[in-house]
What we know:
hydrolase; 2 domains; endonuclease activity; Arc Repressor Mutant, subunit A; 4-stranded antiparallel beta sheet; 4-stranded mixed beta sheet; 13 strands; alpha+beta
Amino acid sequence: MGGFEVGWRDAKGEHRRPLNETEEVEFETGLPVRGFPSYRGQRNFPGLYWSATTGGHVGFESWLERDHAMLLDFTPEVTGLLSQPLWLFWQNDKGRVVSHAPDYFARFEDGRGLLVDCRPLDRVDERSAAKFAVTRLACEAVGWGYRVVGMVDPVRMANVRWLAGYRHPRHATTAGMAERLMAVFSVPSPLVGQASLLGDPIAVLPAVFHLLWAGRLRADLAKPLTDTTLVSRAEAW
């Protein structure tokens, strides 16, 4: 198998370079290497997701990709995110050039990179599995993480979608209110009952949900969010 090369796009144009020479490239700030076609009768659902992490839109080609973009956006340690971030090129055993464009590139606050491919696991055919395996080798060679991700637990995903409705900074409260919320949730406490200590829940809960999205407050998202869900400061979780 030949060495790996990477192709990517940014405001300056298109680039192609050996993978081991791209350590300083900020792939998360680039442009998608291919578009997201939309046409009558197509079975998938492309679109744009507004990312609180980047302050811009991230493309997706299916609801599954949208969900995983949301989960990456929900991860506090992720500082950058781009869809269709690069082309990976290599030569197979027959000397033919093979290419693959992973679905997402995420950058973490410690500098680590992560490539993600989204595919229902029961739809990973032999050809896709071979590409995913080689992509994993390429990531290991440069110290990136790599994931092939499928369907998410429906309860957890429903909770994250709900909290995503409060991801925009407009739902952030004044520093004083945020600190009061952090104080009343210093130990695990029922969501609505504790929030009502600071005023009308209709006015206070959006701020609670924003803090949950931001990771400053925590709750067990493996269970449905209800009025009695226990919420606490992240460090007390």
